[in-house]
Amino acid sequence: MVEPRADNKLKFQEPKKARKMAQALARALGEIGRAPVSVMHVCGSHEQAIAKYGLRAVFPRALNVIMGPGCPVCVTDLPEVDEAVALAMQGVRISTYGDMLRVPGTAKSLADAQADGARIDVVYSVGQAVELARKSRDEHVFFASGFETTAVATAAVLLANPPANFSVLSAHKYIPPVMEIVAEMPDTRVEGFLAAGHAATITGWGIFERFVERHRLPVVVAGFEPLDIFAGLLKLVELIRDGRPEVANTYPRCVTREGNRRAQEVLWKVFQSTGGRWRGIAHVPNGNLRLRDHFAAFDARRRFKIDLAKLWDYAPPSLAQVCICGEIMAGTAAPTGCPLFGRECVPENPVGACMVSTEGTCRIWHQYGGHLNLGDSR
Amino acid sequence: MCLGVPGRVVAVDGSVATVDFWGVKRAVRLDVVDEPVEPGDYILNHVGFAIRRIPPDDIEKTLALYDELLSVVAEDDLMAADVRGEIDAAEDKKRG
Amino acid sequence: MSPLPSMMTGKIGLKHGAGGRAMRELIRDIILKEAQPLRPGSVGPDAMDDGAALRVGDQWLVITTDSYVINPPFFPGGDIGRLAVSGTVNDLAMMGATEPFALTCGIIIEEGFAAADLERIRDSMQAACREARTEIVTGDTKVMGNGELDGIVLNTAGIAFSRRIVSDRGLRPGDRIVITGTIGDHGLAVMAHRHQLGFEGALESDVAPLNDLVAAALEAAADGVVAMKDPTRGGLASALHEMAAKSGVGVVLDEGKLPLRDQVRAASELLGIDPLHAANEGKAVIGVRPEAVDAVLAALRAHPLGIEAEVIGSCVEERPGFVILDTGFGRRLVSEPEGELLPRIC
Predict the structure, then answer these.
(1) Are residue B33 and residue B19 in the same domain, yes or no?
(2) Phi, psi of B13, rounded to the nearest 5 degrees
(3) Is the Cα torsion angle C226, C229, C235, C238 positive or negative in sign?
(4) What ipTM describes this predicted complex?
(5) Overall number of domains in chain B
(6) How many angstroms separate the CA atoms of A170 and A118, rounded?
(7) Phi and psi dihedrals of B22, rounded to 5?
(8) CA dihedral angle for residue A148, residue A150, residue A156, residue A161, rounded to 10 degrees
(9) Where residue B44 sits, what CATH number does that domain have?
(10) A98·C327 Cβ contact <8 A
(11) What pTM value is reported for the model?
(12) Is the CB of residue B38 less than 8 Å away from at least one CB of chain A?
């Protein structure tokens, strides 16, 4: 029997149970007997939920939860934003998710382009972008960001006869390869991963089995309510304590071993993975999702001549080389160890991924002067 | 990443469902959902697309799993921890 | 390369009008840079309060002005006309001046704007004036060329006389924070409408004149009401940040007490918006001395616009200028929104 949502929400949000989980977590960490134990989540929504519910304040001190490269918007590379800006300045109508509007490119963001007169629409769904194109004779480009979860939606509209004046500029990213990068970083302190529950809804948790075999690090797939996060962390710390590099799924209501086969078919019919830079991190082999040749007609990169050079004439010198986002994400450096932090790199003018997102490590440090101990809730 | 919100299907019209998110209803596309959905089913929505039909049993399964995770810690131990927590809180208050 | 001194470099962006930190910096660093302090004992522009208050004999003359641009001009629950009257009446009321003496109205219209829409807006302004028991006594009209303006811009100014003034900086540790009703209604309703998000369900703006409601609170508590603000652009988060910073206190909110409609909660979850960041146009946040809180709450709840009034937090000595949210799981800092709220995917 299914209860109404109010009831469900209470169950996955019950503070008392969460406190018990936190206690169990502290106990498991105690049994490991050293501190800190560092784990990484690779999902911006995990950071959002941790921040939203104030969970960091109740994590045991021995646990270091590192925010990994899990925000697809933050890791969208400068030239990708530049392409969208250039198209917009060429007079093409751009629609995109709200997250992308203020992400800075080399010379400007889409919001800046809008201020300069470019026509940009913010949409909630790629479906809306298709409808906008259908109602118009102008060229419409959907600037597509997001991980595989979101790429599936883009793929679905391309398979559903979009109008001829619609095309896609893909900045979609694929998560599994970047976990390899982090695991292989020298000096990495990460002892286990909390995998993104909604991306795994598509790919299935089975995809992490090879990763675990190769790197001997446990991976736990977790959901996004407070209890889900505690349960995921608890399971992960238990696997670390017991020296068991395994994949565990603590989000069975949304994730299966096989994942969503239909969505995978749709995804890979339209997209292929290629290597590319993730802002502030590294070149990630197979980390970018690009349209297959069959969909060339809907690929904005092949449909338009995108003149980036014109944009770059006005660009400031690249600071990206100095940025240490990768080390911050790997947990080997703090934001204050970066020469750009708070100087060239500020929230209004970010250089690296960690300063772009409202939940990015550098952004939080800049805004609040480091992690604050706000005390326990009760 | 990937904001996912569960909702309950109230109507299905071809490849589009009307989904109740406990406050507002919205059309959600069914192009990529893993299983056929009917009114009354729960789905997980991401950017206007259903990416998963959530079987009711699986909600219970999740809860059972969490209880199992907690059962490792003996009940008396938890009570002891609760008491410890209260002592800590009282001390915090004193300091506070 | 030299470090950037402040956000105020280069051009004015949309974020400078969004009610948050950027807007305050714009006002402080450019608009008020050369301003001289007003005659002593008055509340002038340097206070950056909801309006100005000038001493006239044994009472105060309160003056405020506000411009209104909203796309679309008609939205569920209201329109730009109702907004323009309510906003200015509310700014007066937040200063403690609950009897708006008169309003003025300037209108700038884009060429091609439908006359019928203008009539609707006029009717709506008159209706809101009747509710607030005030009237528009003078005005001005301009028309600009097609594309030079987005539809219509309204400016209203208001004056009122008052025996007492309530600032937005009178909080001290121990004071309670009261909100007069549900939060985020206006912001989410306009956003869903503007981005054509296709939500079914009654997401409606709360736009309303609050002078009577505020009068009831002031009557109930004499000197117990120590600070007021209307949490418009930037939402409750920005209003509380400003009050906390100006008063030199920290504010701790209890999330479980925040009044929130189911529709607003659902829409904000779908769009990834924090309802604390979403605008309200018919709510007041009131700082109350602890001994007066029961009387104020009872008076608010007896008024039709304050039925859902709630004590949502209290002021503390620690962390002056910060707003902390107790979620029941833990605590977090409440951030201020930067720029216009946009639907998120992650």
Answers:
(1) yes
(2) -130, 95
(3) negative
(4) 0.88
(5) 2
(6) 19
(7) 55, 60
(8) -130
(9) 2.30.30.140
(10) no
(11) 0.89
(12) no
Q: Please report, for residues A37, A378, C280, the alpha-carbon distance to residue C66 in angstroms, rounded to integers and kept in the order given.
A: 54, 42, 15
Residue B43 shares a structural domain with residue B16: yes
- Contact state of B63 with A4 under an 8 Å Cβ cutoff: no
Question: Domain check: are B9 and B50 in the same one?
Answer: yes
- Please state, for a pLDDT cut of 90, what percent of chain A lies above it: 57
Q: Does B2 touch chain C (CB under 8 A)?
A: yes
- Answer whether C195 touches A (CB < 8 Å): yes
Which residue in the set A53, A343, A374 is minimally distant from C324, CB to CB?
Answer: A374
Domains of chain A: 5-68+184-249 (3.40.50.11750), 78-174+260-312 (3.40.50.11740), 325-366 (no CATH)
Same domain assignment for residues B16 and B42? yes
Q: Which domains does chain C have, with CATH numbers?
A: 41-162 (3.30.1330.10), 176-333 (3.90.650.10)
Q: Which chains touch C (3 or more CB pairs under 8 A)?
A: A, B
How high does pLDDT run on average in chain A?
Answer: 88
- Supply the pLDDT for residue A375: 52
pLDDT for A181-208, tens place per residue? 888 888 788 999 999 999 999 999 999 9
User: What are residue B37's phi and psi, to 5 degrees?
Assistant: -115, 150
Give yes or no: residues B47 and B86 share one domain: no
Q: What is the pLDDT of residue A35?
A: 87
Q: Which residues of C are less than 8 Å from A348 in CB distance?
A: 4, 7, 22
Q: What is the nearest CA distance from B13 to chain A, expressed in angstroms? A: 16
- CB contacts of B43 in chain A (<8 Å) are none
Q: Would you state the structure tokens that stand for residue A131, as one six-digit string?
A: 């409808």
B39 and B78 co-located in one domain:
no
Give the model's pLDDT for residue A373: 58
Contact residues, chain A, for C14 at CB < 8 Å = 111, 115
**Domain enclosing residue B45, as ranges:** 5-54
Do residues C73 and C80 touch, judged by C-beta distance below 8 A? yes
Could you identify the residue written with the tokens 């250089």? A351
Give the per-residue pLDDT at B7: 92
Residue C212 near residue C90 (C-beta atoms within 8 A): no
Cα atoms in the Cβ-side hemisphere of radius 13 Å centred on A376? 18
Tell me, what's the pLDDT at B91? 47
Closest chain C residue to the Cα of A319, Cα to Cα: C1
Strand ordering across the sheet containing A93-97: A120-123, A93-97, A140-144, A166-170
pLDDT, average across residues A123-141 = 96
